[in-house]
Amino acid sequence: MADFNEALHWVQKQYFQAVAMKDFDWEKLKNVKCDESNTVQIAILNATVLHPLSQQYPPSNTYKLSFLKSLLAVYEKQGREVCDELYNLIAELMAKKKNSEDEFIHKSYILPCGRAVTLCESAHFVSQGTTGLNTWQAGLYLSNWLMKNKSFLQGKTILELGCGVGLTGLVTLHCCRPKSYTFTDSNEKVLNKVKENLQINGFCPEQRQDGPKACFEERRRVLEDFRNSFGSQNVEECRTCSQTKTGVSGELCSALVCQIDWERCTTEEVDSPEVILASDVIFDPHIIEPLVNVIKVLLSQKGKDQKCQPVAYIASTIRNNDTYETFLFALDNSGIKRNQIHSAPGEFIFYDKTSEIALLRLELP
């Protein structure tokens, strides 16, 4: 039974994150014996396509159909009898017309405690004139690293540059117990999607608005019961992730959403963060100078209650060596101290391990 539960959880995590079928790992499932009543196959369907989370925040029909066909192929290749429920689901999805207007899909990332972070994000790399409406590999990498190093963020005020649809921030809010978290981006459409994803994940907007910032408070019953139903192997992880208080002042954790233009950012626009986060923000040589400038502005701020100088963690997928070297050169010229972090991230959510990703810790001397 332990082998089956492990295989079921493994398949479930990949399904909800919409891992591409070419990368989907079925090996653990292949070692699980099916009984004559097909309870194993039905359990897999109930944990994925028929799960309440999949019903309310579904992946695309195209993905669900690919998943079911791949599952069918696994059993047919092994010469096993396939349950009627699997055939029926495939037939239902094939009968549905593909909706070409589905620009957005849902992905859910199952955390170590068993809670899921659900995101509505673009089905395309570029949507509505921006690349910020989906989750990129460095964001997945950084989220894994932060979950493994929660103590760096506990009780801290955090600001994220180029937050995208909000994965890193929501993972941090649920797993790392910060004092507050500010999502920032220059694109209004991206920030509207962040606000939507905050509400999907149990944060409701406050009635008061703080100037250009949208404020959100975490509900005490953070998520619906079915979103906490994935199980956890680690009691301490579960206790940490389900904690709604910051552990510092006893207040519920707050999230802010704020529009920041890197070329015009001033110290008056943002509160003094203790930790700055960013991922996959180094892709265009023309934005490197304003990015480095805003990082320096944030690192130079120190609130009256802060004991230490601010620090930044920047994760980057290195697609072009020249562009990344330009970024490093700009950091050195600005007087920002940099150290590359070589410790491996956790493996809580899936990311492309073939991608070259660098993680830097930045601070002022």
From TrEMBL:
Q: What keywords is this UniProt entry annotated with?
A: Transferase
Extent of the signal sequence: none
- Protein origin, superkingdom: Eukaryota
Query: Which family does this protein fall into?
Result: Belongs to the class I-like SAM-binding methyltransferase superfamily. EEF2KMT family.
Looking up PANTHER family in the UniProt record yields: HEPATOCELLULAR CARCINOMA-ASSOCIATED ANTIGEN, PROTEIN-LYSINE N-METHYLTRANSFERASE EEF2KMT
For molecular function, the Gene Ontology terms on record are:
transferase activity
Question: GO CC: one term?
Answer: protein-containing complex
Record the organism: Paramuricea clavata
Q: Which SUPFAM superfamilies match?
A: S-adenosyl-L-methionine-dependent methyltransferases
Keyword presence, Lyase: no
Looking at the record, the residues that make up the FAM86 N-terminal domain are 8-93
| Protein name per UniProt | FAM86 N-terminal domain-containing protein
